[in-house]
Amino acid sequence: MRLKPLAAILLTTAMTTQLAACGTIFYPERRGQISGELDSGLVVLNSLGFLLYIVPGVIAFAVDFATGAIYLPDGEYSLNPERLNDAVDQEGQVDPLKLKAIIKQDLDLDLPLEHARQISQPNSQQLASLGLSPRA
To answer: What is the spatial distance between Cα 44 and Cα 55, in angstroms, rounded to a whole number?
Structure first.
């Protein structure tokens, strides 16, 4: 009779972790991706939900696909936006030397930012030269 409460606790814990989905727990920085190569480790972990009935596995896959956490990063460089706040001074101006140091430290890229200038309201030609489209 003592195994029944323990089994219930273990089953509840296992189902709760599966409902939250493995990718969103292990790799929250991957959320927001639209497509890419699937992470086989996460696919296997989400598939374990099928062993605990079908519903936890389906929900785990649905959450990971919906959030995009199941996809491997595509190799593009990215920085945490909070990390970039270190390069902004109290007046809201970006210090190019601090920004260069952050990019060098986090991404190991040496970009020529000494003569960079901040554009507050870029026109469509400036955005097109950077390969960006204007916001609607």
So the answer is: 16
Residues in a beta bridge with 94: 88
Strand, coil or helix: what is 87?
Answer: helix
Residues 57/47, Cβ–Cβ less than 8 Å: yes
- 41 to 36, 37, 71, 134: CA distances (angstroms): 15, 12, 11, 38
Amino acid at 95: D
Q: What is the pLDDT of residue 1?
A: 55
Nearest to 29 by CA among 63, 65, 72, 58: 72
Q: Can you give the length of the chain in residues?
A: 136
pLDDT for 24 = 76
Q: What is the pTM of this model?
A: 0.44
The angle that helices 40-51 and 54-67 make with each other, rounded to 10 degrees, is 150
Secondary structure letter of residue 34 according to DSSP: -
pLDDT of residue 29: 77
Number of H helices, E strands in the chain: 7, 0
Q: What's the pLDDT band for 81 if we cut at 50, 70, 90?
A: low
| Burial (0-12, 13-18, 19+ Cβ within 10 Å), 32 | exposed
